Amino acid sequence: MHKTTSNEDNRLVYTVTELSNEIKSILENSYHLVWVEGEISNFKFYNSGHMYFNIKDLNAQIKVVIFKKINVALTFIPENGMRVLICGKISSYVRYSDYQIIVNHIEQYGKGNLYQSYEKLKEKLKSAGFFDKNVKKKIPNFINKIGIITSQDGAALKDILKVIDDLNANVEVLVYPVRVQGKESEKEILEAIEYLNLYHSNLDVLLVGRGGGSIEDLWAFNTESVAKAIFYSKIPIVSCIGHEVDFTIADFVSDVRAPTPSAAAEMILRNRNSILIHIDFLEKSLINAMYSILNDCKSKLDRFVLSRAMTKPCLIYEDKISYIDMLNSHFLKNIRRIFDLKSEKLKNISYKLNIVSPTSVLKRGFSICFDSNNKIVTSSKNVNSGDSINVRLSRGSLMAKIEMSID
Predict the structure, then answer these.
(1) For residues 361 and 248, what is the distance between their CA atoms, to the nearest angstrom?
(2) What tens-digit pLDDT sequence spans the chain (407 residues)?
C-alpha cells in the first residue's frame, strides 16, 4: 500500500482510498466470523435478490446485507421488528467507508421489543373499536380547505404542494409544521391535530404524514396518544406516510390511508377536479341546449312569418266566409228536411186521432147523453123519470126530460 511521508514534520499521509482499504483489511482480519443477536429495522428487499437491513438493540445498530445466493435458501422472510440471530463476517464498503455484516446464516429469534409494543397497541385499539369502518368520517367530495401536518423541510410537504400545483387546484392550504421523528415528534403531532380542530374546524380534511423510514423513524405514528388524537378529530384525517408496504397505527385509525403524501393529495383532489370537469361539461351542454332551442324557435318564427296568415291574411278570412256559407246552407237544408219529416209525422198522428175522435162518431148519427151532473149516461138505470138530460149531437145539443126509462 502506498503511503507518503512529509519531510517537514515526518508525518505519515494516507490518501482517502488507502485509509479506507486499510480499515477494511483490519476489520475483516479481526472479525473472521461473528454471531450477532438483534432486531431488524429498515428492511429492504431489492429486485436483484439482495436483502439489506439494520440489526439493532436499544443503543446501537449495524448495517447488514444478505446476498441472493444465501437468501434463496431461507425458510422465512425477514421483516421489520423481527428478532434474529445472524452469523457472518465484518466487511467495509470502501467507497463510503461503511462497515457491515455480510450474512451467511440467519435464524428467527422472536419478535423485537418495538414490534411487540406495536402489536400490543394495535390489538388494544382494535378491541376498543378504533379501527371500525362505521366510525370512519367521510372525506368531502369537494375540498376547499386542506390542513397539512408534517415537517416543513421534508419531501412530504413538497410532494403535496407539487400535486396541488400540478392539478391547478384552487384550494386553501394551511401547514402546521411539526417534527415527524424523535422524542418530541409524538407531542407535536398530537398538539397539531388538537389545535387545528379547535381553531380551524372549517378545514375539510387533514393530511398527516411524512416520508418513509425505519420503524424507529416512524414510531411517533405508532403511539397511543397520536392514535387517539386522530380518532377523536372532528376533521376527517388522511394518513399519508411514505411507506407503501408497512402500516402504522395511524394508518389503521385514520379515516383514509394513502400510501404516500403525493397519493393523498391526488386522492382528495381527484373528486374535486372531477366535479369541476363535470360542471364544465354541464355548462357547455346547457349552452348548446339553449342554442338548439333558440334556433328551433327561430325556425318556427321564420316559417310563421312566411305563412299565408302573415303574408295574405285576407285569404284566410275569405276561406272562413266560404266555410260559414257552406255550413249555413247545410244547416238550412237539414232544418227543412227535419221540418218536412215532422209535418208528415204530425199528419199521420192527426189522421189516427181523427178516426178515434168522438166527433167522428157523432158525425155518423150517434149522440152522447149527459145527466144533470154533466156525467155521461151509459145506462137507463143511471136516470129516473122526470130527470133532465143533455144530448150532444154532431152539431149542437138538445135538452130533454125523461118520461120513462126502459132497461
Answers:
(1) 129
(2) 455 555 556 788 888 888 888 888 888 888 878 999 899 988 999 999 899 999 998 788 999 999 998 888 787 788 888 888 899 999 888 888 788 999 998 887 766 677 778 889 999 999 999 999 999 999 988 889 999 999 999 889 999 999 988 887 789 999 999 999 888 999 999 999 999 999 999 999 999 999 887 777 888 999 999 999 999 999 999 999 876 566 899 999 999 999 899 999 988 887 666 676 777 788 888 998 899 999 999 888 888 878 776 777 776 677 677 788 888 888 889 999 999 898 888 888 888 877 777 777 777 777 888 888 888 878 878 888 888 888 887 788 888 888 777 76
DSSP class of 201: T
Q: Strands, E, within 169-278: which ranges?
A: 172-177, 205-210, 237-241, 256-258
Nearest to 139 by CA among 262, 249, 264: 264
User: What structural domains does the chain harbor?
Assistant: 4-111 (2.40.50.140), 117-273 (3.40.50.10550), 360-401 (no CATH)
- Residues in contact with 365: Cβ distance below 8 Å, sequence separation at least 6, in sequence order: 394
According to DSSP, the β-strands at 12-13 and 61-66 are: unpaired
**Eight-class DSSP state of 128:** T
> Of 240, 246, 263, which Cα lies nearest the Cα of 44?
246
Return d(Cα 388, Cα 399) in angstroms, integer. 7
Provide long-range contacts, Cβ within 8 A and 24+ apart, for 8-12.
none
pTM above 0.85, yes or no: no
Q: Give the three-class secondary structure for 13.
A: strand
